Amino acid sequence: MVRFLHIQNRQRAPLTICGDCPAVQAEASPYSLVDICLNALVADLEKFCVERPDGSLCLKESARLPQEVADQLLETMAYRELLNDGTVGIFRGNQMRLKQACIRKAKISVHAFQQAFCHHKLIELDAAGMNEAVTVSDVVSGLGSSVWIQNNLQCLILDSLTVSPTNPYERCFSQLSGLRVLSITNVAFRDEDLAEVASLPRLESLDISSTSITDITALVACKDRLKSLTMHGLKRLSMSTPKFLDVIRELKYLNHLDISDEQHSRSDIPFHLLGEKDILPELVSLDISGSKYITDEAVEAFVRQRPTMRFVGLLGTEAGYTEFLSGEGTLKVSGGENENQISEALKRYSERACFVKEAFFHLFTQTCFMRITKPEILKLVIIGMRNHPLDLAVQLTASACALNLTRQGLAAGMPVRLLSSVIQLLLKAMETFPEQQQLQKNCLLSLSSVRILQDVPFNRFAAAKFVVQWLCNQENQHIQRIAVNIISILALKLSDEQAAQLTAEFYIVVGKLLEIVEQKTNQNELDTTFHFTLSALWNLTDEAPTTCGHFIDNKGLELFMRVLQSFPADSSTQHKVLGLLVR
Q1: pLDDT tens per residue across span 10-30
Q2: Inter-residue long-range contacts of 428-437, CB under 8 Å, 24+ positions, other chains counted
């Protein structure tokens, strides 16, 4: 379905809407025809396929898909975690031609991997997070079975894969002579493996973060070609600081160096690196986020000595507070001092939960009094939430940021697609962490936006169940009022079938709402909670005989007669009560 942006100006005071920013333009645009077609294909893949004797799928149509479309189809399936031994069968043979293959989190066997992907002329393969059945050596050996791939594969990502349990020291990378970029983070990758990789004749970029490396001396073998080196979280590193820096000094052509640390270790390597003048002359990017003993003066002096530098990572350090390091000029900075630094941090660390959480904490304080719609920031929050669905700290801080970015009319300027994504993620977080009251409250408050309730597509059935539970378990009047307002609108948005499935919940809701009405009537209070509750009862009983029965069973008729007698001069109350009684 193609969705368009509908901006409704419901806020009390005028807000600045960033209508020209790329996030608004991209998210407000209709989905491309290719996206629509691929989503339809992926959603009902079996309908477009026949099954082979081994259970794998094959597309019915014999025509080839363009290579770019085939790559995008594979990426879409990987994103939705639909890659298994059956579905990857569509990439066998010559119907598809893959070039840049993404099989992240695929749950496939070694045999299925070899049959589906190793015959393609791949120049890139992202196999991060595949199931344990496929090891690093399985992937590399399978790719090495193709002479074309041996010479032409340029980028290989093997993050979070296992090593062979029978022969963990098996050397296999040397056959990929064309490799330029290798990422092998969070793998039992050892010094011997590093020595083999360093001998690859075209290697330019290497990520060995969170591996078992103890000594990086082997990198000297590729000192004349290595341009990017990422190695954060090397917990087993046993080199002394002077020896470590001696190796780094040899890497004269390095443009990017990442020695950040999510654990905020007390390593003094970054501190001493900043004091070196005859090191890394061509450096463009340095990341030392999470490091100790870092000062603004040391960072500024290091950067000024290297005028080609365009980025420095300072999140979780004591630096980044001067105008020079604000991140507003040509030098980009990741940190927590201002919006520019926080945005840069969320862009660069989206897959590193510890840094995402820290960036969200700083973002929350920055957005508490936000008066400008920031869709580009909300998009970064969505990415962080999506990448770490099981991390409570990330989800909790993200829910607070999402609330700040969409409250008090700010949602009116947000693209519908972004709002839909963030609400779906909040509902998922509530389902994952049902006992976390603050997270649940943040989501409830985000849902209370009229723009979201009226215009934004999301799972209203799941939301209704959540709001009912909150309404029944909360005594706080402010929360009750919000929940009542939400359920009164959601009830009108549910289909007859969905409403029927919530019969038991609505019975409880009607009883709870009548309790509120009775309490307010006894106290002679005509406040907003009272009026919201009357509206909710009116909406819930609209063309709903079952709910009307619940109303009668809970002695609603008698109570509403008392309401009429108690507030004879209030026209709004009279209108709502009589309107419901007519049913």
Answers
A1: 333 334 445 455 655 666 677
A2: 428/389, 429/385, 429/389, 429/395, 429/398, 429/399, 430/466, 431/462, 432/389, 432/390, 432/395, 433/392, 433/395, 433/396, 436/392, 436/396
